[in-house]
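Page 37, continued from 36.
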């Protein structure tokens, strides 16, 4: 049987002397709905909040440690927020925060073995552990989103030509007042446009909707750019 583990903020639990007493399940998040009771009508009406809206959930890992000298180090490690990867989906990560108390109790009078639970409050959508950027140089190039929901990429756009007052259109968004040969970053997740070295936003120069990649094939269309590098940020249930 494959060894169970988790990775928290880049550190594998096994490197900390931590093992799992039982596997952590693979969870598909619950769709966010509400049930409305109508007087005089049997049953109820189920109403969804919106497309691809899911609830966060708690993943509980039951851990075991050999050696009481490790306990304080583990307490310092298992805190705050970040990314977690569980053994059942080793190619994916998800945003999470550790909640509740982390308490390790000695479970043997004769052996220095400690056990406890860690609760991860997980965001519902998972990301690939490694996201390889895609480079596009021709408008209409097809880019595939392998995820389960819309992806909200980071687009690194190289402005075509030379001179000033250039305009770039990428799908549904247009950015004006640019310099030829410079780079802009269009972040469809935070809905911001950044300058070349990502030190200041130029969002005020943009109009339209920030582009997304729907599940499946997407034709990436653009004008005024010579190259677009796409960090797809595919998301999975």
């Amino acid at each position: 049987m494959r060894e169970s583990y988790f990775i928290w903020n880049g550190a594998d639990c096994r490197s900390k002397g931590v093992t799992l007493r039982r596997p952590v399940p693979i969870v598909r998040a619950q769709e966010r709905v509400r049930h409305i009771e109508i007087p005089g009508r049997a049953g109820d009406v189920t109403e969804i909040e919106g497309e691809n809206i899911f609830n966060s959930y708690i993943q509980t890992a039951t851990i075991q440690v050999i050696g009481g000298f490790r306990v304080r180090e583990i307490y310092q490690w298992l805190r705050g927020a970040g990314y977690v990867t569980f053994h059942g989906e080793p190619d994916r990560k998800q945003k999470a925060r550790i909640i509740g108390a982390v308490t390790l109790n000695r479970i043997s009078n004769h052996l220095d073995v400690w056990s406890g639970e860690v609760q991860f409050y997980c965001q519902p959508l998972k990301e690939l552990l490694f996201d390889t950027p895609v480079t596009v140089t021709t408008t209409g190039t097809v880019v595939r989103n392998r995820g389960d929901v819309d992806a909200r990429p980071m687009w690194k756009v190289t402005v075509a030509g030379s001179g000033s007052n250039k305009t770039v259109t990428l799908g549904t968004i247009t950015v004006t007042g640019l310099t030829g040969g410079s780079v802009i970053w269009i972040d469809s997740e935070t809905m911001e446009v950044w300058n070349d070295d990502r030190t200041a936003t130029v969002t005020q120069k943009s109009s339209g909707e920030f582009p997304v990649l729907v599940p499946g094939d997407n034709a990436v269309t653009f004008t005024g750019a010579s190259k677009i590098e796409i960090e797809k940020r595919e998301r999975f249930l």
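The mean pLDDT is 93. Flag for discussion at group meeting. The first strand starts at residue 6 and ends at 8.
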